[in-house]
Amino acid sequence: MSTDQEQKPDTAKILETLKDFQLQTVDYVYRRLYEDCDAVKRFLVADEVGLGKTLVARGVIARMIDRLWQDPKRRIDIVYICANRDIARQNINRLNITGERDLELTTRLTLLPVNTQNLQNRRLNFVSFTPGTSFNLRSRGGIAEERALIYHILRQGGVIDSRTGPINLLQCGKGKDSWRSLLARYDTGRIDQGLAENYLAIVQQDKELLERIYALSNKFSYHRKHIPPTATFL
């Protein structure tokens, strides 16, 4: 893990911007999470609108980082889940104390490997999601960008090759030409190798899944205008 250019956020400077009642809340939450003999794993802060819950969360994050930073080998990941993208964009800069500007808002959990660069190489990471897009499983085929990511990870890992079968298999409802164009121009350099390796390890351990991938790739060895119902899902 490279930390040469990383500095711990200035906790004191962050906390001094809080009002007294906000700071008291931060201290209480931190104590319940980390210091009490009956410490809890989660804590809910609820009050009237406009009293600064986002700033309280920022203070808790600062104190948490201050504690975890003592272990030089520990990577710290802050995950922010917000009700919707608009609210997330309003709050993300106030919550993000990593010092990075123009932080990318990752709306889909499955696209994390391309939206979070060098996750494994940074000491401190800030990642945000919105439930409506990250945890909605109604579309089993996902979106084209997700399938393109899966294709390139599996291909780079040797699970599939560049033959037509895997390409057709992951096309789903995308047009033939636009799908192939997406795969051709896909920037594989954006893929976080640590996450890709973890994904590959899970896939390669699942022998049944591998057999289904190979079987369906063979069924899709030529382009089909309509997907057979029996071959829709992995």
Detail the topology: elements first, then pairings.
Elements: H1 11-15, H2 20-35, H3 53-68, E1 76-81, H4 85-95, H5 112-115, E2 124-129, H6 131-134, H7 144-156, H8 164-169, H9 176-185, H10 193-205, H11 207-219
Helix pairs in contact: 2-3
Q: What does this 3D model show about the protein?
A:
This protein is mainly alpha-helical. The chain has two domains: 11-134, Rossmann fold (3-Layer(aba) Sandwich), CATH 3.40.50.10810; 144-231, no CATH class. The chain has helices spanning 11-15, 20-35, 53-68, 85-95, 112-115, 131-134, 144-156, 164-169, 176-185, 193-205, 207-219; strands at residues 76-81, 124-129. The protein has a two-stranded parallel sheet. The chain is elongated. The model has no long low-confidence stretch (mean pLDDT 84).
Summary of the model, kept short:
The chain has about 230 residues and is mainly alpha-helical. Helices cover about 45% and strands about 5% of the residues. The model has no long low-confidence stretch (mean pLDDT about 85).
Fraction of residues in helix: 40-55%
What's the shape? elongated
Strand content: 5-15%
Major β-sheet, in short? 2 strands, parallel
The span between the termini is: 36 Å
Count of helical regions = 11
Number of domains: 2
Q: What are its keywords?
A:
11 helices, Rossmann fold, 234 residues, 5% strand, two-stranded parallel sheet, elongated, mainly alpha
